[in-house]
Design goal:
With 287 residues, the protein is α/β, with parallel strands linked by helices. It has helices spanning 3-14, 38-53, 64-68, 71-87, 102-113, 137-141, 171-183, 207-213, 231-237, 250-253, 266-282; strands spanning 17-20, 59-63, 92-98, 121-124, 146-152, 165-166, 169-170, 193-199, 217-221, 244-248. The longest helix is centred in the N-terminal third of the chain and has 17 residues, at 71-87.
């Protein structure tokens, strides 16, 4: 089964939430730090989140910056968390946002689709051109891996470049159209292809057009939760509650802080946060 079809099936069974394991030591209760290395503390925290949410989470995303910031110890936690997800037959996204010339990109592809840091999907930055995307295609052609390419992001400075007019069309649409043409070559049985797009849910005026225009692309949807995206925007970026995954990172990882007994029940409250995400977005389904 192609990886994109497997993701489609996971969403059908478990819902559209992507839990972002963007784990900082600052988020961990004292019990995860005392007498433990950084790598062990982060991994143990991640493992509790995963175990508590695996049956209601389609995929897990690891933002590599949080792990790189702790040096070798952090990268050991990154490696061990990805290995644990594979052991549990769960899907993963390595949120690495790489962009480089082809010869370097081929090494990034090897690093993050094989070996210690292997993930099922990775995120890519397309702004160096399509030759910075092509080195990942051998893994995509096999059906075993997929990518999410930055399209319309949710950060405040997104419009500095993404909405610039290029030959009468906004730059992000120029990018999306090139990815769409390439994705057509690799469609799975679900009707979607493995070259997906990162589409933030904070741009109300654009979400419907983006979903309509890129109907065979899976979306990785950031912005819900801490970044304040409207639940209706998120719903409009989905397609019958599939065709995309909705990332929630801090809202899940730090949920335990809202409860008096939270430090003893990290997994319990992470699960409640995932369930709340599913409910908050699903309330729009009758619109």
């Amino acid at each position: 089964m192609k990886i994109i079809d497997r993701l489609y099936q996971e969403i059908s069974k478990k819902g559209f939430v992507c839990v972002g394991l963007d784990t900082s030591m600052d988020y961990l209760p004292a019990s995860y730090k005392e007498g433990k290395s950084i790598s062990q503390g982060i991994f143990d925290f991640n493992r509790e989140i995963i175990d508590a949410t695996a049956d209601i989470t389609a995929i897990y995303k690891l933002q590599i910056a949080y792990y790189e910031s702790y040096g070798i110890e952090g990268m050991m936690a990154y490696r061990d968390t990805l290995a644990y997800l594979r052991e549990k037959n769960l899907l993963s996204i390595g949120d690495i946002k790489r962009s480089d010339i082809a010869v370097s990109a081929s090494q990034y592809a090897k690093a993050h689709f094989e070996g210690d840091f292997e993930a099922d999907f990775i995120t890519l930055n397309p702004y160096m051109g399509m030759d910075s995307i092509s080195p990942y295609l051998p893994y995509i052609e096999s059906g075993e891996k997929g990518v999410f390419v930055l399209l319309r992001t949710s950060n405040p400075g997104a419009s500095d470049f993404e909405t610039l007019d290029v030959n009468g069309k906004e730059l992000f649409y120029q990018i999306g159209d090139k990815i769409k043409a390439l994705n057509e070559n690799y469609l799975g049985e679900s009707g979607y292809g493995p070259l997906g797009l990162v589409v933030g849910a904070t741009h109300t005026e654009e979400v419907e057009e983006i979903r309509k225009r890129y109907d065979k692309e899976f979306f990785l949807i950031p912005g819900f939760g801490a970044q304040g995206a409207d639940a209706l925007n998120v719903y409009k970026l989905l397609n019958d509650k599939n065709g995309g995954v909705v990332n929630n990172s801090r809202g899940v990882l730090k949920a335990y802080l809202n409860y008096d007994d939270g430090e003893e029940n990290v997994g319990k409250y992470a699960r409640l946060a995932v369930e709340k995400t599913l409910r908050d977005i699903s309330i729009n389904e009758d619109l």
